[in-house]
Amino acid sequence: MDVVAFLDFDAELFAPRYRAAEQAMALLVRAGRLVGPRRGGGRVLVQTFAPQHEVLQAALFADPRRVAISELARRRLLGLPPFRALAAVEGAAAEEFVTATGLEYATTAKGALVRADTWEALGQALVDTPRPKGSRLRVEVDPPRQ
């Protein structure tokens, strides 16, 4: 029998990341693929205080649409991708840089998140804004665009 056990899965379900639900779902799907079908003895065990959470219900009923529908509604309401463009900027001068972009932003422990209405506007602002002298910045656009 193959078994994968997740202890304190609530840490994934309620992580302070806007992609927490989709990442938690991906972990469960990966675990399910690893152990194989139930009829073959495969088991995925999840320790949680939130058994009714949409991610766990979606995994239980093999219906990822449950997560997708609620996540899209949540992201639309909060102005997160795919409805608006988002990038993380990290480094000592991150706040100075994102302030200079003229875009909406929020500070984080490592720097700032900057948001724009479109990917084009976000990209143009990031490219056009001069970097503060002597600073190193890391810019990660989420989700990455090809």
Q: How does this structure look, described?
A:
With 146 residues, the protein is of the alpha+beta class. The protein folds into 2 domains: 3-78, no CATH class; 85-142, no CATH class. Helices cover 40% and strands 20% of the residues. It contains 6 helices and 6 strands. The protein has helices at residues 10-13, 20-35, 54-60, 65-78, 94-101, 119-128; strands at residues 3-6, 43-46, 85-90, 104-107, 111-116, 138-142. The strands form 2 sheets. The protein has a 4-stranded antiparallel sheet with strand order 4-5-3-6. It has a two-stranded parallel sheet with strand order 1-2. Helix 2 (20-35) packs parallel to helix 3 (54-60) and helix 3 (54-60) packs antiparallel against helix 4 (65-78). The radius of gyration is 19 Å and the shape is elongated.
Brief description of this entry?
The protein is an alpha+beta fold and 146 residues long. The chain has 6 helices and 6 strands, in the order E-H-H-E-H-H-E-H-E-E-H-E.
Topology, element by element:
Layout: E1 3-6, H1 10-13, H2 20-35, E2 43-46, H3 54-60, H4 65-78, E3 85-90, H5 94-101, E4 104-107, E5 111-116, H6 119-128, E6 138-142
Helix pairs in contact: 2-3, 3-4
